[in-house]
Design goal:
The complex is a heterodimer of chains A (429) and B (179).
Chain A (H helix, E strand, L loop, with lengths): L25 H6 L4 H9 L2 H11 L11 H6 L9 E6 L8 H8 L1 H14 L4 E6 L4 H16 L15 E6 L9 H8 L23 E5 H13 L1 H4 L10 E8 L5 E6 L4 H8 L9 E5 L8 E2 L9 H6 L8 E6 L4 H15 L5 H18 L7 H12 L7 H26 L7
Parallel strand pairs in A: 1-2, 1-4, 2-3, 5-9
Antiparallel strand pairs in A: 5-6, 7-8, 7-9
Helix pairs in contact in A: 2-6, 2-9, 3-6, 5-6, 6-9, 13-14, 13-16, 14-15, 14-16, 15-16
Chain B lengths: L29 H10 L9 H12 L4 H11 L3 H8 L13 E6 L2 H5 L2 H12 L12 E6 L11 E3 L2 E3 L7 H8 L1
Parallel strand pairs in B: 1-2
Antiparallel strand pairs in B: 1-3, 3-4
The chains are: A alpha/beta (429), B alpha+beta (179).
Chain lengths: 429, 179
Amino acid sequence: MAYPYADPRETRLLSKHFGEKDAIGIDGWIERGGYRALKKALGSMSPDEVTGVVKESGLRGRGGAGFPAGLKWSFMPKDDRPRYLVCNADESEPGTFKDREIMRWTPHQLLEGCIIAGYAIQAEHCYVYIRGEFVDIVRILNGAVGEAYERGYLGRDILGSGFDLELTVHLGAGAYIAGEETGLLNSLEGRRAEPRIKPPFPAQRGAFNMPTTVNNVETLASVAHIVMNGADWYRQWGTEKSPGTKLFSCCGHLQRPGNYEVSLDFNLRDLVYELCGGPPEGRALLAVIPGGSSVPIMKADEIDCDVSYEGIEAAGSMLGSGGLIAMDESTCMVRAVRKMVEFYAHESCGQCTNCREGTAWLAKILQRIERGAGREEDIPLLLDISANMAGRTICPLSDSAAVPVVSSIQKFEHEYLAHIRDGTCTAVR
Amino acid sequence: MSDALHPAVAGAQPSQRAEKNPEAPLFEGDYRDRFERVLSRYPNKQAALLPVLNMAQEIRGWLSPQTIARVAELLELTPAYVRSVASFYTMFSTRPVGKHVIQVCTGIGCDLCGAQAVVDKLLEATGTRIGEVSKDGKYTVVEVECLGACGFPTVVQVNDRVFENVKAEDVEGLLAELD
């Protein structure tokens, strides 16, 4: 149940010690080279130099948006207001379970990244906002935080450098939208996790109205490696626009589901067929969603591309969070899309009309198509509603809900028509 | 408990312990201490709302109007505000629940791999419908959105325990393990 499969074709930077129980505690982590990057950063680099090397490395935000991490840090104003670092550990994009595994096996890898990033932006407090559902992971993380304080990696005058950083673990309480960075900030402040209108961006006014940087777990976990080994070293993997490695959480109809870490120029088809073993014996692959349920669905014959941000985009989808969902021919596409849309309908915070109403209507129409009570006009209706949901709301949840609807109609319209015209399903049982 | 609890993690203790008492005093003894440690980590009292609600639910099992009013008083907020926040989050129960809250992930990853059969089997075995408390007060079965462990379907969370790779035929054994 732990970390099931490994493959020699992976590039295991972040996941090198997954599955090793001894790597979880601080002594085991230090034996494996942990906290050396922190010593290097605090001992021999200025905050700007740390930001500089992360900028040069080209590391892009691993939460889904892919925004360059070093650039984000450089937006932090240098005035005398308190500054915050917030680690987004609210992993809840359907299909994604990589941050959970980072924290489960290597909590100190994350903490070291938080402390280095906190130093780079000169934060006084780091909040790790973690999903409340991750009960077992929270216990591991809490233990690691206690150890880091005990050894003087957190608190006052860290390693005699004069740099102070407090870190607090903050539990979410069940809300997908708290993973959106401004929804997260509201939640952290004891409010409903309703996203905020941007601008102002968090760097100007974030947590408690103060300059704030929000970074994903995987992004922060990458930081120590980059600081330790340099930008050029990190750029030996991936592509010019997508340097480094990335964890892919692979689930659905696969022989070997789990997390795989690959160089960002790895082939998507090889990831699905070679590393994950393809669909179960005797079944053909129908479709792949490469980056969490918010990105367009790809047909099985469209996945011969590299997994870089630009590679997947050229093939018609998005890298997103790296949550890969594979569907074989036993899948009813209408049901799968209905399940995804119901998720967004449930998780819509309700602030924006297009999203609140749009998600509910999409779900209702998909339900009736699935049970054979749909009409042919429902297909243009679904597309019309989707068009009115994209780009018209405070946050991207509304866009995300429309994505599987639009892409599935583009690529699998015959499945909808089978339900509507014949009351049948094309899924192979 | 509280001696070892660093303030950094005082507000992040997984809740939903098995023994709950709706009449228990709120934030006395060890919990008072934990409450103070939580408050020390934020620039204002409102920010402690989620962790404090979490603790209140851990003690009392669910967030009754009385519990909400008490939390509001302690954090200098209005009960209406606290209720508006509590009702936003799925992990906060504003109704009584069974001793074992069984959350079945029916997100896309688990759904593709047979989550519905697990839900059906759980409802049958506990004799409940979704969200109900079983007659003996022991079980509440709910469907939840993606629990973030999609590679290990179906994921079932019972209070603060997580079960992975649950199949319909594992349900009887799982229930037996809870007692």
